[in-house]
Amino acid sequence: RYRHTHFLTSANALHQLPPEAGREVAFAGRSNAGKSSALNTLTAQRALARTSKTPGRTQLINLFEVEPGVRLVDLPGYGYAKVPTAVRLHWQQVLSRYLETRQVLVGLFLLMDIRHPFNPLDRQMLEWAGHRGLATHVLLTKSDKLKRGAAMAALQSVQRTLASELPHASVQLFSSHDRTGVDEAHARLDVWFGY
Ligand code: GTP
Ligand code: MG
Predict the structure, then answer these.
(1) What ipTM was assigned to the predicted interfaces of this complex?
(2) In this predicted model, what pLDDT tens digit does every residue of 53-70 receive, in sequence order?
(3) pTM score, two decimals?
(4) Which atom of ligand 1 is nearest to the CA of 80?
(5) Which residues, 6+ apart, have CB-to-CB distance to 129 below 8 Å?
(6) What residue ranges line ligand 1, CB within 6 angstroms?
(7) Measured from the CA of 76, which atom of ligand 1 is nearest?
(8) Ligand 1 atom 26: the closest Cα is on which residue?
(9) Architecture of domain 6-193 in this structure
(10) CA-only gyration radius of the chain, Å
(11) Where are the domains positioned within the chain?
């Protein structure tokens, strides 16, 4: 279903986004968390979204169309120290307003590197999503970097934290390298998009 996804447009500010029609699911997370890679993995395309070893690669809101009215949104990564303050503040404001006001946003994938969960900015994103009751699903990315037992322990630890602090959110393991969690993430997208 997601294989025919194609690039739609980029936005540098909220007024450049497509009109509020249809449904969107957004991918948010720290720079380098693996957002663009996850988008490519979930759409079975090698280079739909640009990935990079250099953090801060995605500096626009990039929108991809699964089919008319159904969009995946690659948000700029946050938390990259070398970004100038003015740019960082601009994007923090854009991200918060996008998450809090975008009507067609039906779900949020929050990506956290399994080795570094819950950066303060991750918590900020979860809070903004929580404010409006936005369905949020955490992808613990790069799970291939840990052995199976360690990955399961990390998953359970994040589950416990979410249960006590952010009960609206769910979580799963994900890896673009070995495809862990692809079916589970697709199932979540299907629910949000009403397939
Ligand atoms: P920004 O656009 O800078 O915010 O980064 P991003 O979150 O889009 O990250 P991106 O997908 O570009 O990936 C960053 C780096 O992590 C790249 O070097 C990827 O190859 C690597 N990476 C992404 N996913 C995985 C994964 O599942 N496993 C491993 N081992 N590496 C990954
Ligand atoms: Mg990216």
Answers:
(1) 0.99
(2) 776 666 789 999 999 999
(3) 0.96
(4) 3
(5) 99, 108, 110, 136, 168, 169
(6) 29, 31-37, 51-53, 55-58, 77, 141-142, 144-145, 175-177
(7) 4
(8) 142
(9) 3-Layer(aba) Sandwich (3.40)
(10) 15
(11) 6-193
